[in-house]
Write a structure and sequence with these properties.
It is built from 19 helices and 25 strands. It has 728 residues and is α+β, with helices and mostly antiparallel strands. Helix 6 runs antiparallel to helix 7 and helix 12 runs parallel beside helix 13. It has a five-stranded antiparallel sheet, sandwiched between helices. The chain has a five-stranded antiparallel sheet with strand order 7-6-10-9-8, with helices on both faces. A five-stranded antiparallel sheet has the order 11-20-19-16-17, with helices on one face.
């Protein structure tokens, strides 16, 4: 009669223990084990030599039986790879774990005891008696009834299992610091301390593969996390220059990247040859050995991104197989570091572009504040939304906000192109609707088959809103291309979205294209205008109209004396959804404008006596403003030339406007003509064409802007000292 128990009656511990016979060769450690060893009373064995036979025993199975209190009751860890594990009957199993892993593993063990559901194939580190660690695949199995307790199955695949686990853990983040940290944590399985030092250009993302000057290393990662000796280099610190040169020379012997091993503390001090370098690189006062493995990108010639260092006690020398494992792991993961470096470079470029487009502070007639908040902290959340504000040469202020489809470098490039084009066209005097027509054509051109779609990015559906604030008339002229409506807060605190007709957006198909409407709104001094992108008001829990209503309520609470930048941040913090899924942009503009006494407007018929009448009225006003004689003479001559030019080449009545600013005078002459004045060189015998030359020499800048009824030629005369009045 066969007395062998059936599989159904065997415990998990018995099944795992019987399986050991298939893995341990005859005459191996299992055969040489004493009876005491099979019961868990194991003796210290010598370290396995680095031979092929030992390599075959790197993959082995072991079993540990535990009671409900997680105390070891049985043990079968006789394979050489488990040597040094103090798995003694009667000791708690958690004594085999690193201190940082005890809470997590204890929770898993008790969960299996309580639920009877197994935890299978968890990567775990075990602590040997000499302080070194062993990486295993650990499964926790409940005992079969009527037995109680647990069986812990350990598979010590010290090479392939750990390499696979490390490679899958590294590269899960595109942050270069997190990638280096993951690599250092994986390297810790081969030593007591692991560090990753990267070329400073790799860290900043500007690495090109060609060394420019002396190498400069920065510590990117260091494990474990502990208190380090004074002078030791920790993450974020630059290595001393002589230490950087030393590591670079060590791993680039004969101009080829190579792994080097320094076997003991005496050799380390002899090689480093400087107490300062020893303090910076050696982690402690104990005898130490180090392996330095270069992070290499394959190529001709190969490119070194940095150096990985693994430190251990000198009485545990690195075996050849361990060095091969270290080199294989670093080689497999170097491309992850390079990918994070490329991502960092793109991130830096996009952020530089984003900051370049952020509004500058306002002037005397308007206050500006803006907030940009990407959907995610990394560069994947940067790109689509943009906001800009800038003074126009004629004294008005342009406020522009847009939302380009998508994220990343493609969206950022389109955003930058549209923003710069809008600024150039507005500075040239075009109206908001005309600017949007040009942007619409640009988006269409960017999306043709040869440029946009071939690059894998489409900007169709992008939106934009342009507002021009005139500080003299206290009006805002606005056009929108598919953008969410701005919110206007009147001086008495009443807030509401502006009634802007919806538009399909930029780059719409020809059949869907509609003219861009122009809206004009009164904005008395003290008014507040909010321009934003849809990420601020979109929330899955409510409609877009409710989101805009919440924004109107939030900006209506901004007091006229509140600091505008602080108020903008407060509004965003109140409105951003808990799970932000899109970029958020907010631009607040507080209208101030010019005082009534700082401007003057006259209307004159386009007759021969118009220049003389204009000179008399301007001269009288400038005496009233108490301007300097030289400034008054220049302004009178300037107005005379502009009016004369308008009478000769235009029709209809003339409008003359004089504006006193903090740095000079702005003179404007409007007419009903559509010709653009151009500066040219006149021949010696020419009777005409010299008026604009005089204007050009008298002014700091001049230009033309177009209106519904014609054009306005404006020019600015600077003053040597601030004008009297509100700026005195």
């Amino acid at each position: 009669m066969d007395s062998t128990p059936s599989p159904s009656s065997s415990s998990a511990y018995d099944l795992v223990s019987r399986a050991l016979g298939r893995y341990i060769p005859r005459g191996g450690a299992a055969a040489a084990a004493s009876p005491a060893d099979t019961e868990g009373e194991r003796t210290t064995r010598r370290r396995v030599p680095d031979t092929p036979a030992a390599g075959r025993q790197d993959q082995i199975l072991g079993a540990v039986g535990l009671d409900r209190d997680l105390v070891i009751t049985r043990c079968n860890l006789d394979a050489p790879v488990f040597e040094g594990l103090d798995a003694v009957v009667g000791r708690p199993f958690v004594d085999l774990l690193p201190s940082g892993d005890v809470p997590t593993v204890t929770r898993r063990l008790r969960q299996v005891v309580e639920t009877g559901e197994a935890h299978v194939a968890r990567i775990q580190r075990l602590r040997r008696g000499d302080g070194s660690e062993l990486v295993v695949s650990m499964s926790i199995l409940p005992a079969a009834a009527p037995e109680e307790g647990l069986t812990v199955s350990l598979i010590a695949m010290a090479r392939r299992l750990h390499l696979y686990a490390a490679e899958t853990a590294i590269g899960t983040s595109l942050d270069i610091g997190e990638t280096a940290q993951s690599l250092a944590e994986s390297l810790l399985a081969w030593g007591d301390v692991a560090a990753v030092d990267l070329d400073f250009a790799v860290w900043t993302g500007e690495f090109t593969g060609r060394a420019k000057g002396p190498i400069r290393l920065r510590r990117a990662a260091l494990v474990p996390d502990r208190a380090w000796p004074e002078g030791y280099v920790t993450p974020g610190d630059d290595l001393p220059g002589d230490a950087s040169r030393l590591l670079a020379q060590a791993v680039l012997r004969d101009d080829a990247p190579q792994t080097i091993v320094i076997p003991d503390r005496e050799a380390v001090e002899r090689v480093f040859a400087s107490p300062r370098v020893v303090r910076a690189l050696v982690p402690g006062d104990r005898a130490a050995a180090v392996a330095c493995i270069p992070l290499i990108l394959d190529g001709a010639p190969p490119v070194v991104l940095g150096v990985a260092e693994v430190w251990r006690r000198a009485d545990c020398p690195f075996r050849d197989s361990e060095l091969f494992d270290l080199q294989e792991l670093v080689a497999r993961t170097a491309h992850h570091v390079d990918l994070a470096r490329r991502h960092q470079r793109e991130h830096t470029q996009v952020l530089a572009l984003q900051r370049r487009l952020l509004p500058r502070s306002g002037g005397d007639t308007i206050q500006i504040a803006s907030v940009y908040q990407p959907a995610t902290p990394d560069s994947a959340g940067v790109g689509g939304d943009w906001v800009n504000s800038f003074p126009l040469p004629d004294g008005r202020t342009a406020l522009v906000v847009g939302d380009v489809v998508g994220h990343g470098l493609g969206a950022a490039a389109t955003m930058g192109q549209l923003s710069m084009e809008a600024r150039a066209l507005l500075s040239a005097g075009l109206a908001p609707d005309e600017v949007l027509e040009h942007l619409d054509e640009t988006v269409t051109l960017l999306d043709d088959a040869e440029s946009g779609l071939a690059a894998g990015y489409s900007a169709l559906g992008s939106t934009c809103c342009i507002a021009l604030y005139d500080p003299v008339s206290h009006h805002v002229t606005l056009s929108s291309a598919g953008h969410v409506p701005p919110v206007l807060v009147s001086p008495d605190g009443q807030a509401s979205p502006l009634p802007v007709h919806p538009h399909p957006g930029l780059g719409a198909e020809f059949a869907l294209r509609e003219p861009f409407d122009v809206y004009t709104f009164d904005t008395p001094p003290g008014s507040l205008l909010a321009l934003y992108t849809d990420g601020l008001v979109e929330d899955p829990a409510m409609s877009i109209d409710e989101g805009i209503g919440r924004l109107a309520d939030a900006v209506s609470t901004v007091h006229p004396w509140d600091a505008l930048q602080k108020a903008a941040r407060h509004v965003v913090s109140e409105l951003v959804p808990a799970r932000q899924r899109d970029d958020v942009t907010l631009l607040l503009a507080r209208m101030i404008g010019y005082r009534k006494g700082d401007t003057a407007t006259w209307r004159l018929p386009a007759r021969y006596d118009a220049p003389a009448r204009a000179r008399a009225q301007v001269s009288a006003l400038l005496r009233q403003w108490r301007t300097r004689d030289d400034t008054r003479d220049s302004a009178v001559l300037l107005v005379s030339e502009l009016v004369t030019n308008a009478v000769r080449f235009a029709t209809g009545p003339l409008t003359i406007r004089l504006i006193r600013t903090g740095h000079g005078l702005v003179c404007e002459v409007g007419d009903s003509g559509n010709g653009r004045p151009r500066l040219r060189r006149g021949a010696p015998l020419d009777d005409g064409g010299r008026g604009l030359g005089i204007v050009h020499r008298l002014t700091t800048r001049w230009g033309v802007r177009w209106t519904d009824t014609g054009k306005v030629v404006w020019a600015e005369v600077a003053t040597a000292t601030p004008l009297p009045g509100r700026w005195r």
